[in-house]
Amino acid sequence: MLSALEKAGDNIRTLRANVIYDRVDAVSENRERRTGQIVLTQDSQQLKSRTLAIMFDQFIDASGHASPQTQRFVFHGGWLFEFDDARHQLIARELVPPGEQLDPLRIGEGPVPIPIGQKKEEVLSRFEVQLAPLPEQPLLKRLVNIQGLVMRPKLNAGVDPDLAEIYVWYDLATLMPVAVAATTKGGDQKILLLAKQELNKELDAAAKALLATQPPTATADGVAWRRDVRPYKPTP
Fold this sequence. Notes:
12 strands, outer membrane lipoprotein receptor (LolB), chain A, mainly beta, 12-stranded mixed β-sheet
């Protein structure tokens, strides 16, 4: 199955989807939810050419109270751009040495687990992979026509040391991931649902705007955006 998933990922030009993202605390069992959308572009068969935007526009706390809260993350050219609309603040972090690229969807990395189009050889070098049963999480139970994989990090494989396992369920028609459940060694969970996917369709102006790496030139309240640029620093 990994070979077919790799091939499907190579053929992506654009992907747009709605996102529901839950974080569940293992001790309190409190659940926080964010909703929004993702937009992905890439050159054919060039995973490191990817630009990924994740935009959350609503936050639901553990009590079930919902409030508008806009945050946008853009991965592009080795940089992570974090936009905070409420504070009119952009933080730009260079994640790799200058001139290098990265794949923002690499399994086991990034703030939100969205593994799309990963190379079979690399996956098997970093994870033990098995077929997974259908999801049990309430958010994911209605999914149909899917196949799951469970991936557990190998020792010293360069994966987040706190990650215990990650389940990914793929739509059998498109071979795109529709749901992810990542669990830490402490039992905390990140659960992701990708709905209403649009694959290889022309992006409209609103979707293209989410991929922008510069803040708006004007705001409704007239407050200027602040920029905090943080170049790459090697780990000591």
